[in-house]
Amino acid sequence: MRREKLIKWIVMFFAAMLLFTFLSRAADSVTVAQVQASGVQNQLIVHEVSGNGTIEGTEEQAVFTLEGQKVEQVLVQEGEAVKEGQVLLTVLDSSIQESIDAKQDEIEEKELAVSDLESQKAVEEQKKANEALRAQQDLDTAVGNGDINIANARNELNIARQRLADYRAAKAAAKKAEEQRKKQQNENEFSGSADFTDGSDLKDETGESTENPYLDSTTEQALADDVRAKQDALNQIIMSRNQEVTAADRARQDAALPTPQDSTGSNLERELENLKEELGQLQTLLQNRGEVKAPADGVVKSLSVSTGGQTTGEAAAVLYKLTGEMRMTGMIQKDDLEYVDAGTEVTLKNSRGLTEENARVLSVQEDASAPGSFIITVSVPEGDFAVGENVDFTVKKENGPYTCCVPLSALYGNPGQQYVFVLDTEDTALGEVQTARKVDVTVKEQNETRAALQEGTLSADQKVITGSDREIEDGSRVRLRDSCLLYTSDAADD
CATH assignment of 59-92+290-323, given 2.160.20.10, 1.10.3210.10, 1.10.287.3510, 2.40.50.100? Predict the structure, then answer.
């Protein structure tokens, strides 16, 4: 009896434990957050920039028609493929004829202006020739008169020099004769045949004084002064002659200089030539019934005319040629610049499902009409894409790998103050209990799906909570859905 009672109490105990466990789990299902978790991964962070663009040709050809023509009809539109010789637009015949008449009047006026300018030029050239002739004559006169004056002055100088030389020779002879006389007188006095005298008061037989005139220095000085005066006069004449010749020669050189180039004549002739060329174009256009045609196969890039309007000075149409290398232009935003550089690989895909993976970025330039937006130009290899075709482009840039990557959904907080919740497990009397623990993290880089954390922030075996059916905080009890523990390949990104 006692044994049966013991067994009954044991059965009741275990039943109660089972009931309590059931009730506890039922309560947990209501009060404990159910979470998803993921392991820390070693991954690359891939940034993707995408958009839409248009295939363009690299070689353009402008189609011009003369300014001021009334457009009858534009037969093509931008982006349309055209064949060589296809009519792009037509111009009214009456408008062409009016332009022809006006152009002929302009040509007549310009021809008259050219004729008047040529006549004026001939007169100026004759005047220039006369001035050059007079200048040469003045130079010849200056040289001739100067040489004559120099010759005369030099002759007078030579005469003065000769007078001084003759005087000095006579003086020397007189001095020698006087010395001889005195010597003879001294000899006579020594012999006692004559009274003593210095000879200064000697008289000739007629009673005149025999004083030597060449012993007077005044005459010699006067002759020397005359020589110097004649030399100074010659120097002055030479200087004046050189100055006059230099001035005359400069005037001759100035007169011989070519007439300064006047662009008026060449401009008039160029304008006349252009007018005649435009007249020929108008006449050809009239002969072609006002039809402006495509010069080659291509795609219409742009049109500057419209039906009923007038042609302007710019090209009426611009065509992309269908030969040679192509390019794509699209638009990206300022935030994308970090991931798009010249040389970056680009993947292109058109609406027909064709893909080109060997395209590369040529340039990135800000759109002047839309600040903050940037035009991306991509080199497109020859292939299945056509000029004018719309395509989708994708640019991918890989950074890393990073050893501590988590799903972006695991991040909480604001930039610079971010954190994650890691999953902790504790053994209790009732079994294992799981809790959420807050861990502050530093994000090195992130994309739309993943974030790379500072190395060492989390261990490789830790799990981060990536989702919860309710709000959690540090220390919150959580329950992991068995099917929600995610494991991904180390090489995967998304």
Answer: 2.40.50.100
